[in-house]
Specification:
Layout lengths: L1 E2 L8 H4 L8 E2 L5 E2 L5 H10 L4 H13 L12 H10 E2 L3 E8 L6 E7 L4 E9 L2 E5 L3 E3 L8 H4 L2 E4 L2 H15 L3 E6 L9 H11 L12 E5 L3 H10 L4 E5 L5 H7 L2 H4 L2 H15 L3 E7 L7 H11 L4 E7 L13 H13 L4 E3 L13 H8 L4
Parallel strand pairs: 3-4, 8-11, 11-12, 12-13, 13-14, 14-15, 15-16
Antiparallel strand pairs: 1-2, 5-6, 6-7, 7-8, 9-10
The structure holds S-adenosyl-L-homocysteine and iron/sulfur cluster.
């Protein structure tokens, strides 16, 4: 997918209001229409010499989830031909689907327009359905415990490709997704403007209309982008993958820490929590004898004391080619108790879909290793 600097649709004056978002083009030079907002679709249609009402019709069809222009029944043939020449509609085709026998969690492997693959996981909670979506094909960050990180980076996803994951899961399971978790493959803040546009589209009344309070974004800690995100003040939940209380352990498992060390990261988190009045959720994957010792809990407690935050402890998922092992139940309980001494609330996260490798990056990895790609 080509990201062009020169925009045929968006003029210089309006570029500012798009806050850095640049639409994608496919190999044939066609624009990704499903990532555009209503105003941009109107600009495009006016440039094609079409009346205003056509833009509204086309925007409506796009939001209904059509997968090709031929499905737009009230659009004349000549315009459909023109749209096919100038635009493309992103799709996510189900390449594989696994359903957990334990809890009904569904894991999808989606094939995108250019043949790349991403994963999404649909989980059922008492409050509704939550979908964990991918934001990139692979990831540049190289965390040693992460299947996605180990598979390298291919490209970032467009806003439309993130929306497609939701629409496809909803259609396939005949349900409505009420919560979105940006916690699948990829680092969302390394794809900042596409993710911002995605949030704007998915929360809009014309779109899937998902409340921003029902969106969580998980980051490995790209500090400057945490400050940028705070400026948007979306009201979403920010999850930060901390996984270690100090730079020695964190740098050994998360290379990003060498650039943005723990102190800088926690300072950015404090700023985010104060600015948005939203509690930060720290993710902590418990790895036996790596980061699960009592002294780690004390150090973490001292550093998080007083912050508007919560700690989620997750027994690390086994990933092939690593020696990392899950911490046992006693370790998890001891960790929670120590954190409580510092008035830091912590819970052990329930793992869903444990029989279907529901941790993202694993299904794609298997598919590639088997020669499926
Ligand atoms: N890149 C973002 C979001 C995607 S990763 C981030 O790192 O936050 C989603 C979550 O899964 C992160 O908290 C990540 O640290 C965690 N994770 C990755 N591999 C894991 C594993 N093997 N076991 C448990 N959690 C893992
Ligand atoms: Fe990327 Fe997140 Fe995996 Fe780290 S944990 S490699 S940031 S996807």
């Amino acid at each position: 997918m080509i990201q062009r600097e020169e925009l045929p649709v968006i003029d210089k004056a309006s570029e500012k209001t798009h806050e850095g978002f640049v639409p994608a083009f496919d190999k044939e030079g066609r624009i990704d229409i499903k990532s555009l907002n209503e105003q941009e679709i109107l600009d495009l249609l006016l440039k094609l010499g079409q009346p205003k009402f056509r833009a509204k019709q086309i925007f409506g069809w796009i939001n209904k989830g059509v997968e090709n222009f031929e499905e737009m029944r009230n659009i004349p043939r000549s315009l459909i031909d023109e749209l096919n020449k100038k635009c493309y509609i992103s799709v996510a085709a189900i390449e594989k689907k696994q359903v957990s026998l334990y809890d009904g969690t569904v894991k999808y492997l989606f094939r995108l327009n250019d043949g790349e693959y991403v994963e999404s996981v649909l989980m059922k909670y008492h409050h509704g359905y939550s979908l964990c979506i991918s934001t990139q094909v692979g990831c540049k960050m190289g965390c040693t415990f992460c299947a996605t990180g180990r598979s390298g980076f291919t490209r970032s996803l467009t806003p439309s490709e993130m929306i497609c994951q939701i629409e496809k899961a909803e259609k396939d399971c005949q349900i409505r997704v009420s919560n979105i978790v940006l916690m699948g493959m990829g680092e969302p803040l390394d794809n900042f403007y596409n993710v911002v546009r995605f949030i704007q589209l998915v929360t809009s009344d014309d779109g899937l209309n998902i409340g921003v309070r029902h969106i969580s974004l998980s980051t490995c800690g790209l500090v400057p982008r945490i400050y940028d995100l705070a400026e948007y003040n979306f009201g979403l939940t920010l999850s930060v993958s901390l996984h270690a209380p100090n730079n020695t352990i964190r740098s050994a498992t998360m290379p990003v820490n060498k650039k943005y060390p723990v102190e800088e990261l926690l300072q950015a988190c404090r700023y985010y929590a104060e600015k948005t009045k939203r509690r930060i959720s720290f993710e902590y994957a418990m790895i036996s004898k790596v980061n699960d010792m009592d002294e780690c809990a004390h150090e973490l407690g001292r550093k998080l004391k007083g912050m508007l935050c919560h700690v989620n402890l997750i027994p690390v998922n086994n990933v092939v080619e690593t020696d990392y092992r899950k911490s046992n139940k006693d370790r998890l309980e001891s960790f929670v108790k120590i954190l409580e001494k510092y008035s830091v609330t912590a819970t052990v996260r329930r793992t869903l879909g444990s029989d279907i490798d529901a941790s993202c990056g694993q299904l794609r990895g298997k598919h590639i290793r088997k020669g499926g790609v």
